[in-house]
Amino acid sequence: MALNTSLVQLNTFSKSLSAKLKKIGLFSVQNLLFYLPFRYEDYSKVLTIANLTPGEQVTIKAQISAIAVKRGWKYSKMFTEAIAEDETGKIKLMWFGQPFIAKVLKMGDVAYFSGIVKDGKLGLNMVNPVYEKDTPPSPPLLRGGKQNDTLVKVGNRIHTARIVPIYHTTEKLTQKQLRYLISQVIGLATEIKEWLPEEFLESADLVPLSEAIRGIHFPEDETDLVQAQKRLKFGEIFILQLRAEMIRQSLKRANAPIISFQEKAVKEFVAKLPFELTAPQKVASWEILKDLNKNEPMNRLLEGDVGSGKTVVAGLALYNTVLNGYQGVIMAPTEILARQHFESLKQILGDNVSLALLTRSQFTVYNLQFTKNFQFSNDKLSKQKIVELIKNGEIDVVVGTHSLLSDDVQFKHLGLAVVDEQHRFGVEQRKILREKAGGGRLNPHFLSMTATPIPRSFALLLYGDLDLSIINQLPVGRKPIKTRVVEPYNRQKAYEFIKEQVKLGRQVFVICPLIESSVIPTESRDEWSLPAGEAGDPSTSLRYARDDKSDEKKTVMSEYKKLSEEIFPDLKVAYLHGKLPARGGSALGGKPSKESVMEAFRNGETNILVSTSVIEVGVNIPNASVMMIEGAERFGLAQLHQFRGRVGRAEHQSYCLLFSNTENEKALARLEFFQNNIDGFKVAEYDLETRGPGEVYGTAQSGLGNFKLATLKDIKLIKLARDLVRDIDFNQYPIFKEKVKEWEKGVHLE
Ligand code: ADP
Ligand code: MG
User: Fold this and answer.
1) Predicted model pTM
2) Could you say which ligand is closest to the alpha carbon of residue 312?
3) Which numeric CATH code is attached to 263-471?
4) The CATH classification of domain 482-702, taken from the options 3.30.390.80, 3.30.70.120, 3.40.50.10140, 3.40.50.300
5) SS3 per-residue string spanning 660-722
6) pLDDT (tens digit, 9 = 90+) per residue, 122-168?
7) Domain ranges of the chain
8) Probe ligand 1: pick from 649, 654, 681, max atoms within 8 Å of CB?
């Protein structure tokens, strides 16, 4: 038997068992060893019967003196009752729903029983205790295999009288079966190779991997378990840190243009702004300007809650870049946002900076007349011509979507690249931009901006290579947005409220989870429905189906129809979703496009905009004061926070109204937390705790999909790992490069 021995080769394997194991991804001995418990029961306290106290979780060793199957008087269900004795006393044992027990445990059998002691009418008892007969270890599993001495080391008992591992399992594969199998191969843990060099084990005070694997399954005691967990968590964290360090070092080696601080002009720029920069905006700007002034590429993440004013900070950096004779680019995730950045940069960059907007379907330039070789009128430029102007260096700042990366755009000398509403520049994006940058072998400086507040521990873990600037304060004069979960019977009141707001001149967003009528077929709706208040977290589509039945469909098209025809016939209502064409048409006159709808809303020509989540990130409509969200439980809190951030962007008191028909308690608790917390960082932390990083940031994005044990709470280990990888010489440790590659492929087998 070896690590790569296939499980079907083991003696006791029936076909059906190996099919079940396959279901949970277990094919080989190695798979079994790395199939980690997700929790433990502590049955390590072994007591005699006379010493038991009610409420305690314990193990007893006792002999069965009577056992019988009985019929309960209440539900006439069968149960097994037994009396067990040791030299100090007797105890009653009962099992429900396990009719086979009387066949396994016979009178006279000596066994261990683990569970919680209860105080019954007729003395102490235990309900559904885990039992394990006192027999010698079973013979080896594999044909011709040798006796497994680790089992002896773990004290023979695997289900009782110890800290017992609990695994995720699948239908008809019991904890005991799985635990038994793992106990049969655990001796092979000694063959697992350690990949962490000795000196790292030492400085982080870690046990070797093989020890950790043994200890994570069958710990001798609490300390042993903690040691095992520490080693395994560290391994996971360390690989992420190595990866970040590799990126950091390769960037450090690269050269970037030195973009010096044009103090006088930048000060004038700031003075001309219609507002005073907040203190954290000033600090962030200063940090960025300092980075630009170095000959290694900046690699910075600018984090700031929605509405905290990141755009102007980016604008300032771009301006300083242009003053140095370099080009800048800013990329947004959607066309709507690219357009918006274009419009605001037009305002803040002033008359001396030429700008181009270039997305798949939109292209235009601004201020071109101030460039040297102006010979065409702005609005007659073809896309191709704009691309040419960029290549010749006649456009100072290019605004676009990520499609800029795939288009044949080429810069003359790109100095600064900004990406908005993304957690970071990916390795791949950086490579592409470097190739497009022009200017010889110089790398551009990189600035990522995000409004998804990432807790520091998380940023440290994943973005150890990034420098972080945080804007943690909103501009003065903003009134906190009033958030309310509205009871269904108050819907009418909410509509009245919206009417009042519109009368005051304000505008309103209505967000719906879907575009058109539900994807769930009507005829099978009952099958999809779930009982109210069901525990667990049913998938959102299931949840929606149930709501769907009890209320009208919340889709953009149905809500648009209802609001424009029945509720607000006197107001101007428009709709927006991702499937609309990018441009052309008009918001109210049929065939609307994303551009025409946003334009009309921005100009105040429409009062109410019914939209899907396309409106989610970044959209800036200072006059909007109400954000109404239908089917609110269908969105993650981070996303709801983004929606909420679409209002309250000016001096008007703003409101976020959440509608939901869910009775799911978890979902309601989430919404209530959201209602009571306006701080984006708090919301993000809560979201991370309740849903996990994979859900919040996307599994791939978060990189935590590969984590089995480590969590964001392991901040000490995260810091330790980061300190240990700093300035490491990768040539000295080829294994580290391999590990990172493996991780990137998502293999991660340790
Ligand atoms: P976000 O950080 O969410 O991208 P924006 O950059 O879109 O936020 O800014 C939101 C709004 O706040 C814009 O209308 C912007 O002009 C305004 N703003 C930015 N900084 C300030 C400030 N210091 N004082 C007042 N308003 C500001
Ligand atoms: Mg923004």
Assistant:
1) 0.71
2) 1
3) 3.40.50.300
4) 3.40.50.300
5) CCCCCHHHHHHHHHHHHCCCHHHHHHHHHHHHHHHHHHCHHHHCHHHCCCCCCCCHHHHHHHH
6) 889 999 999 999 876 555 554 444 444 544 444 578 999 999 999 99
7) 7-38+136-227, 49-133, 263-471, 482-702
8) 649
